[in-house]
Amino acid sequence: MKRRDLLQMTPGAVLGLSACSSKDALASLVSSSASGRGQSPLQSVKMPPNTQYRPPAYANQGLRNPNMNLPTAFSGSAISYSRGSSAYANVAMTFDDGPHPTNTPRLLDMLRKRNIRATFYVIGGNVDRYPHIARRIVAEGHEIGNHTYTHRKLTSLSESEVRKEMRRTQDAIVRATGVKPRTMRPPYGALFQRQRQMLFSEFNYPTIMWSVDPQDWRRPGPSVVTSRILSGANNGAIILAHDLHAPTVTAMPATFDGLLSRGYNFITVSQLLAQKG
Ligand code: NI
User: Fold this and answer.
1) In the structure, how many helices (H) and strands (E) does the chain have?
2) Which residue from 215, 195, 213 is spatially nearest to 203, judged by alpha carbons?
3) 108 touches 136 (CB < 8 A)
4) Are 165 and 173 in contact (CB under 8 A)?
């Protein structure tokens, strides 16, 4: 029974009595009990104050990620990563293609409840559409990364077009949140080596791929998304998901709790790269 339901019940309902007869029935209960002992039970009950009493914690507070106060400054020379160090039981959850007006706030609530920081690879056009959500992402301690402005396949663009995609998105993120993205992820994972080199030298962006892909964009259903992530995760995993898709967000409570109960801690991509050294 929910606590609220209990509070809304009348005393008669709690005793299993109908509302109209509750007063009479209660009176007869008291009098029969009183006659058995020869005094009023209400006067005979003397309880010392219970100093040991503590209000119960709310039931099922749920699993919680520990505070992961790790460095975020990375200085590796690699221009591309698909995972972090396997020496630690840490994983990085990444969410692409947002911000989305309803899915992203729903996801942020789930993350906040569990003290999890994630990394959001946002589309610049969506940041301009929903700057307040981008702000909330950063305000709640998550990392924000560059996922282009129009989500076009970068391997089909000229170098100057790629540059423009990155620049426009970076500007939109800085405008909305005040912070500069530190990594990028190419749409569809498509990026030539020379393009990665250019983004690293001109923007200081390492290219971030992934090691676990639940193929959630195919919409296999929330439970499949969860089981694919749980079976694919290991130390240092970078997990790909999309907050663009409602069923993906629906899959996240079981996914987060499943990973936490298996002993994984959640950190951001920058924290993962800093650990890699
Ligand atoms: Ni994408």
Assistant:
1) 12, 7
2) 195
3) yes
4) no
Burial class (CB in 10 A: 0-12, 13-18, 19+), 258: middle
Q: Which domain holds residue 271?
A: 80-276
Rg of the chain's alpha carbons, rounded to an integer? 27
**134 C-alpha to ligand 1 centroid (Å):** 16
Q: Ligand 1 centroid to 188 CA: how many Å?
A: 6
pTM of the full predicted structure? 0.79
101 and 214 in a single domain? The answer is: yes
Residue tagged active-site, from 100, 147, 151, 242: 242
Q: Is the domain of 208 the same as that of 254?
A: yes
Q: Which residues contact 221 (CB under 8 A, 6 or more apart)?
A: 247
At 268, which CATH number?
A: 3.20.20.370
Cα(264) to centroid of ligand 1, in Å?
25
Whether 98 is in a domain gets the answer yes
Query: Collapsing DSSP states into helix, strand and coil, what is residue 192?
Result: coil
Joined together, the tokens standing for residue 274 give: 């800093």
Distance CA 123, CA 145 (A): 9
Active site residue 242: yes
- Residue-wise pLDDT for 60-96, tens only, equals 578 999 999 898 988 878 999 999 999 999 999 999 9
Residue-wise pLDDT tens digits, 164-218: 999 999 999 999 999 999 999 999 999 999 999 999 999 999 999 999 999 999 9
